[in-house]
Amino acid sequence: MDNSGQILFDIAPVEFPGYEEFKAKAADVAAQINSMDVDPENIKEAKTTLAEARKITDRLSRARIDIKKVILESYSVFESQVKEISSIIGDAEDALRVKVRELEEAERDLKKQAILEIWEKRASGYPDIVEFIPEAFDRWFKPQFTNKTMTMKKVEENMTEWLRKTAQEMISAKAVSHECFIQYVTCGDLTKAIEGSKIVEEIEEKIITREQEEPVETALFLVMGSKDITLTEMILKQNEIEFERK
Q1: Nearest-angstrom CA–CA distance, 197 and 191
Q2: Is the model's pTM score more than 0.70?
Q3: CA–CA distances in Å: residue 68 to residues 11, 61, 75, 76, 77
């Protein structure tokens, strides 16, 4: 019986008083089969022996199946009842989870809106960021900022540091070159912007040098992404167009 007193069951013992007798008979039949030599003269006898042996196992197997079916009948009913009860609770749980998720999403949206309002106040002190990086908020914002464990104080500290660092890197990029500045406000990575601007400047210098050496019309194309670069090179090679990759 279940500890709650709400579920009652009896363990039905399966008794097999003829076990030893059947086991001994099975051993005798097995010994007979093992010692039997089959030839054209006794093949009929061998088949009869196999049939008798099969009758023993078939009889026991049918009994096993029938007994198991009877034992499981009451369990099957109980199992179905438990599943029904679990389904009732499960449906209610799912409905509640949806409500909880909707409420949490609404709270996240409200917090993000509050963060955006703080951003607009803070970013107003950095006019270059507002002018040259219109997507700056999305570039800075992270979903974890709306978590309950993330206080608005921590979010604002992160925001202030990001604005300060970005403004300083914009000044550094502009000091390198105009091309570096353009690349920085595009990618937001000062190291990549410096490397990219140097590559462009080197290519431009080569173009100017080649134009001075011979009046050959040239053009500069900046292809981004490994797949596009590979495709562009393939097209140029197929059309026997001279190019340089930096």
Answers
A1: 10
A2: no
A3: 13, 11, 11, 12, 15
Q: Which of 227, 220, 217 is nearest to 246 (CA)?
A: 220
Euclidean distance between CA atoms 184 and 199, whole angstroms: 14
Dihedral sign for Cα atoms in the order 52, 57, 62, 63: positive
User: What tokens appear for 87 in the block?
Assistant: 């389904």
Taking only the tens place, the pLDDT of each residue in 20-35 is 887 887 787 788 777 7
Q: What DSSP character marks residue 17?
A: T
> Minimal CA–CA distance to 169: which of 155, 181, 157?
181
In this structure, the dihedral spanned by the alpha carbons of residues 210, 195, 139 and 130, taken in order and rounded to 10 degrees, is: -60
Look-up of token digits 């134009």: 211
